Amino acid sequence: MNELVGERLSIITPKAQTTRHRILGIKTGDGYQIVYSDTPGMMEPHYALHEAMVRFIKASLEDADLVVWVVDASLSTEEQGAIPELLQQSAAQLIIVLNKIDLLPQSAIAEAGQYWRSKFPQAKSIIGLSALNKFNVSTLEQEIIALLPEHPAYYEADELTDKTERFLAAELIREQIFYRYKQEIPYSCQVEVVSFKPSHRLLSISAVIYVERESQKGILIGEGGKALKQVATSARKVLENYFGKKVFLETTVKVEENWRTDPRKLDRMGFQ
Ligand SMILES: Nc1nc2c(ncn2[C@@H]2O[C@H](COP(=O)(O)OP(=O)(O)OP(=O)(O)O)[C@@H](O)[C@H]2O)c(=O)[nH]1
Ligand SMILES: [Mg+2]
Q1: 38 plus 171 within the same structural domain
Q2: Which domain holds residue 45?
Q3: b/e per residue, 190-227, with b = 16+ CB within 10 A?
Q4: Which of 16, 97, 144, 265 has fewest C-beta within 10 Å?
């Protein structure tokens, strides 16, 4: 979606389940407007956060005129997950994107195309692309535009997303956590920006990083606060680059017991 919209709206990491929300990306062009919903990846929900993530997927599927189903073409067919029932049941038109074809030899791309055609005979098109190398992204956009229904624009031409700068800032901090910690830590963290104050030259951001348990807090902060300091330094650089000004970033770690499994806490944290 970032490549299609031409903006960094969703964070990207090598770890699974990076995206936790439904994030709109709006692209308005000459005579068209595309409203993308980037969603979490489909999965079996194991706890309340997962359930909230699946709700975002369901709502997006219900609203969609068109579903762009992105598969990782570098995985073997055995490694591909089952095709979710929700997708099979969706009345929306379907495009299958075989992403990461930069990792495949030409012959394997053709084979992948045939495999996915047999899985989705109803697909309007199956497009191999590389989001990384920006290969075939504009072809995909042309296919999408061709399938858009006639409708007045939903958003103003200069709107890019439904998310606030606060939200995007919190996500960029979370992205650094996903990059810097292993195993359970990224999944036990949620970031909230509690203060976002832009002035002429400086942007002051205060963020709370929630963890579920005292032990995770210790790992996150690290010996002598070193690990958290590294997160904060790299996040500050990313934020400065993103917002185009100097950033003062303050981070606090708080234990919010079992926030992932408590629907009320999740509601308060913006997962309603
Ligand atoms: N080689 C290669 N890697 C890619 C390409 N597109 C994405 N990636 C990598 O794949 C990983 C996952 O990318 P994400 O954008 O986080 O994937 P996602 O499908 O949104 O995943 P979740 O948000 O975790 O559900 C990251 O490490 C990306 O850099 C591509 O075209 N080629
Ligand atoms: Mg994602």
Answers
A1: no
A2: 2-147
A3: bbbbeebeeeeeebebebbbbbbeeebbebbbeeeeeb
A4: 16
Q: What is the DSSP letter of 135?
A: B
CATH code, domain carrying 216: 3.30.300.20
Q: Is this model's pTM higher than 0.90 or not?
A: yes
Protein residues with C-beta less than 5 angstroms from the ion ligand 2: 18-19
* pLDDT tens-digit readout, 190-247: 999 999 999 989 999 999 999 999 999 999 999 999 999 999 999 999 999 999 999 9
Nearest protein CA to atom 14 of ligand 1, as residue: 12
What are residue 56's phi and psi, to 5 degrees? -65, -40
Cα 200 to middle of ligand 1, angstroms: 35
3-state secondary structure 146-196: HHCCCCCCCCCCCCCCCCCHHHHHHHHHHHHHHHHCCCCHHHHCEEEEEEE
Residues 32 and 4: beta-carbon distance below 8 Å: no
